[in-house]
Amino acid sequence: MPQNFLGFNIIKIKCTAIKSIKLYQQLEKDFVKPGLTDDWFQYMSSVADFLTDNFKKRSMGLVCDFNVEIKRVFTAVFPSEKVMQEILNNNEKNALLFVHHPSIWDIRNAPDIFYQMDRKLLEKFKERKISIFNLHIPLDNYNEYSPSVSLAKALGVAIEKPFANYFESGALCGVFANTKIATVPALKKKFESVLGHESRLYQYGDKKIKGGIVAIAAGGANIRNIIEEVKKEGVNTFITGISAKNTHSLKAHKFAKKNKINILGGTHYSTEKFACMAMCDYFKNFGLPAKFIEDKPILEDL
């Protein structure tokens, strides 16, 4: 069977529906590698009665098991009220919502930066037989569809190699990439054209991109140990999602400033959405219609 460049089996199937268990098994096979860990369930007690036993143990995979057959897939970064309501407004049934996160991010609610799915909407999902599947760390891990790989593709840069063991989870969530863009201000302009909104540049280093190499780690990767890897590689420009200065990121900013490493932030949502958009192609390989549902970036991430 032919494979893509990162080893995924390319499957082209014409069908109108697929047994849920078969799709879940394939997702597990393709993405959930030994040793990967996650910790969502500890924060999700308010919706625990909707969650599968397997998710309660691993915090990944099938979140809500509401059907036995899937006719359509929707993808989203977060299962926000906007996303869930849009699916319900279209009177969808026997569908799957694939999300990168099983909870919803909002830095404006710090320190409670994640909140949980709406229970009333979950009840309606159950009635309509719309299941929910989550891959966070497994999707972050270096692969064809990962957020950093997908963001690199959107930026038009050439991936060199992966890096950044995210919170010692076992997932390499970042990439080093070669760019033809010479300066950080020019990169910022390109970044904003790809995102569709403003970004935030913390120009701690030279405006020239050193060696034509940038480090990319989408989402919430503005942490010191990751920027330490950027320094070791001799790279002076780091692209991520959440760049706001706060108690969580203060050590990262201090280290970046001391070592003259530029930080370019584009919000949690906007830097990760390209992965969920790419996952539509994954599901279409099974013959399933798939649609990415847009949400709103939180500019306070910057």
Order of strands in the sheet with most strands = 9-10-12-13-14-11
Order of helices and strands: EHHEEEHEEEHEHHEEHEEHEHEHE
* Shape by Cα distribution: globular
**Cα distance spanning the termini:** 44 Å
- Helix count from the secondary structure assignment: 10
Low-confidence stretches: 1-6
Relevant CATH superfamily of the largest domain: NIF3 (NGG1p interacting factor 3)-like
Could you tell me the radius of gyration in angstroms? 19 Å
**Structure class:** alpha/beta
Count of extended strands = 15
Helix content: 25-40%
Can you tell me the CATH topology of the largest domain?
Answer: Udp-n-acetylmuramoylalanyl-d-glutamate--2,6- Diaminopimelate Ligase, Chain: A, domain 1
Can you give keywords for this protein?
Udp-n-acetylmuramoylalanyl-d-glutamate--2,6- Diaminopimelate Ligase, Chain: A, domain 1, 2 domains, alpha/beta, 302 residues, five-stranded mixed beta sheet
